[in-house]
Specification:
Elements: H1 9-20, H2 29-48, H3 51-62, H4 71-82, H5 87-95
Helix pairs in contact: 1-4, 2-3
């Protein structure tokens, strides 16, 4: 298994927003999902290094009607919870100096 690197919440939110972007083009949305799913899965694997999560991400993107699931953000939260840190202080610490 690839050693995952530290990932920012902002990156995960951006990746999920890109996945939602296919809804902007209603007629082309599902076709765009077919193109986006393997790209998203590749980025997911390179980011988190897990095949189970990558498979979930791919299926979430390629199957109709499941684009609303924020797989990158959910994985970020899961890894944060697994590390034993609290979500609110972690977010506050990372983004309090962003202004």
């Amino acid at each position: 298994m690839k050693t995952p690197r530290k990932v920012s919440l902002l990156f995960c939110l951006l990746m999920d927003a890109l996945g939602y972007a296919t809804y902007i083009l209603p007629a082309l949305g599902e076709f765009a999902d077919i193109v986006w799913a393997p790209i998203s899965a590749f980025i997911f694997y390179r980011t988190f290094g897990t095949w189970k999560g990558t498979l979930f991400n791919f299926l979430e993107e390629v199957l109709p009607g499941l684009d609303f699931i924020p797989s990158f953000t959910l994985m970020w939260l899961w890894r944060l919870g697994k590390s034993g840190k609290s979500v609110v202080p972690e977010v506050r610490k990372r983004y309090s100096n962003a202004g």
